[in-house]
Amino acid sequence: MRKTNEKAKLGYVLLAIALSLLLSYACKNAFGNVYDLINLNSNFSCEIPTVILGDGANKTSTIYENRTSARIAINADSSALTYNYSLNIINNDLSNWEVKLDCFNATNAVRVNATIILHDNSTSSVQISVDNVSLNQADSYYNLASSSTIYIGVMNLIENSPDGTTILQAYLRMRIPGTTTYTLYTITFEFT
Amino acid sequence: MQINYKKSMKLIVLLISSILIATVSATIYDYMNLNGTVGVQGMSLAWLDGDDASSAGTQINGVTATLTQLKGPPNGTRIYADPVRLNNTGASAGPFNLTISSVTGNTSYLDSIYVRLYSLNTSAWTGNLTVWNAGAQGSDLTGLSIPENNLWRFQWEITWNAAATTSNSVTVNLKIQVPVS
């Protein structure tokens, strides 16, 4: 008799578990995970760059594929060197642009003194300066007129230490004036 | 009372089968709800044009915003800082998830696509969605909440690799999931 009661209890327990499982699944699916949806669709395409990079008259730069990135390599010395035409920035667009240099990574920066400028032969803008203490950025845009060329110059480059290599990685940040649509090209300065 | 174990086991098997059927049926029912228009009218979140709507080709049609003219140079990065905004017109914070529905097209020419969220009320960065990076689709951004009467801008950053040409394009579909209370 006692054995029969235990079996009956066990049967009720199994039944209760099964019913609980069924109830929990039913409730979850009835009340959970209901969302309204808002859509954000976009279509990207690749375009021919209207602003391109070119090797300057000083022949210090390497231009990479598509002319949208470059490396400027200069051998620094204990006496000051200036390369006014390290890199050309060529605007083939009919619109005016504004450009500036943003240094986003620096290695052994204070190993040299240097001033990096943008200029068009008549006006100029200091963009990055480095000395044996710190690296500074101007954070100011310089005008790149339609169908024109401006230049990156490296001024007063002096080696403070003969050891190692100084590498400054910068974005050439470009925008149509008055907009917040930007284009970034990577330019690497390497001072050995 | 005598318990027939064979009958009990049959009943349990029947119940488990019904659970599985109920699960599958209810899942389909969920999607029917998601694709419907029920509840959308009451939503407090809405799209608005941003400052870069013109260059990005932003088109807003009800609950769908489409950016039709996003472009970028090969081996360079294009940033659209403010092509579209999300506006919470409600009287309370609006929780939502930002999910990646699909990334299709010439993805082998893509370096990355990021969507960064910023509050226009506080200028604070509020989230970062990696749509595509290192040859793979990123993960959804969950647990976001836009305060009442706030505007967030959706900044898009696109980087094509050096092999990309003008014949390459990619389509991205994102969804904002707003839980229905």
- Placed side by side, the strands forming the largest sheet of chain A appear as 2-5-11-7-8-9
- Averaged pLDDT of chain B, please? 86
- The fold-level CATH name of chain B is Jelly Rolls
Q: Please state the overall shape of chain A, judged from the principal axes of the Cα atoms.
A: elongated
What's the oligomerization state?
heterodimer
How far apart, in Å, are the first and last alpha carbons of chain B?
47 Å
Class from helix and strand fractions of chain B? alpha+beta
The CATH architecture of chain B is Sandwich
Residue runs with pLDDT of under 50 for 5 or more positions of chain A: none
Overall CATH class of chain B: Mainly Beta
Fraction in beta strands of chain A:
over 45%
Helical proportion of chain B, percent range: 10-25%
Whole-angstrom Rg of chain B: 22 Å
Helical region count of chain A? 1
**Percent range of helical residues of chain A:** 10-25%
What's the rounded overall pLDDT mean of chain A?
89
* Tally of DSSP helical segments of chain B: 2
Provide the succession of SSEs of chain B. Answer: HEHEEEEEEEEEEE
Provide the structure class of chain A. alpha+beta
Give the overall shape of chain B, derived from the CA principal axes.
extended
